[in-house]
Amino acid sequence: MKALKMCLNWKVIAGVAAAGVGLLVFAPGLAAAALPFLVLAICPLSMVLMMGAMNGNGMGQASPTHAAGGRQPRNRAERLAELEMQQQALADQIAALETEDDTSLGRRPNAEAAAQPS
């Protein structure tokens, strides 16, 4: 019984019930034929709704994990500090790659800047 309760979402059941009532009112002959399909659709629709809720803000877009223990920052200041750390790390990587590139080409770092007139 617990597994069945996990599969069913009350919003989906309410939506399917509303669709069933609509069919009974507007197309009574079609309601009897559509009822088994509506009942079968409850579980897959509940699963889709749960997957969307687990993703947070939308389907297909996983929430990012952060370097600080895999948790999301609690407020704007923490997020800003984290982004500044990431920006500094990227700047360090860029500088290291530029230095590596300059030494592999046999040039001194900033040789282009010294060669250009001011």
Summary?
The chain has 118 residues and is mainly α.
Provide structural commentary.
- Mean pLDDT is 75; it is low at 59-63.
- The protein is elongated.
- The longest helix is centred in the last third of the chain and has 29 residues, at 76-104.
- Helix 2 (10-26) packs antiparallel against helix 3.
- The protein folds into 2 domains: 1-56, no CATH class; 74-112, no CATH class.
- With 118 residues, the chain is an all-alpha fold.
- Helix content is 71%, strand content 0%.
**Number of E-type strands:** 0
* Succession of helices and strands: HHHHH
Q: How far is it from the N-terminal to the C-terminal residue, by CA?
A: 80 Å
Question: What is the makeup of the main sheet?
Answer: none
Structural Rg: 29 Å
Overall shape: it is elongated
Give the fraction of residues assigned to helices. Answer: over 70%
- Strand coverage percent: under 5%
Count of alpha/pi helices: 5
Structure class: mainly alpha
Count of the separate structural domains = 2
Q: Could you list the spans in which at least 5 consecutive residues all have pLDDT below 50? A: 59-63
Q: What average pLDDT do the residues reach?
A: 75
Q: How do the strands and helices of this protein lay out in sequence?
A:
Layout: H1 2-7, H2 10-26, H3 28-54, H4 76-104, H5 111-115
Helix pairs in contact: 2-3
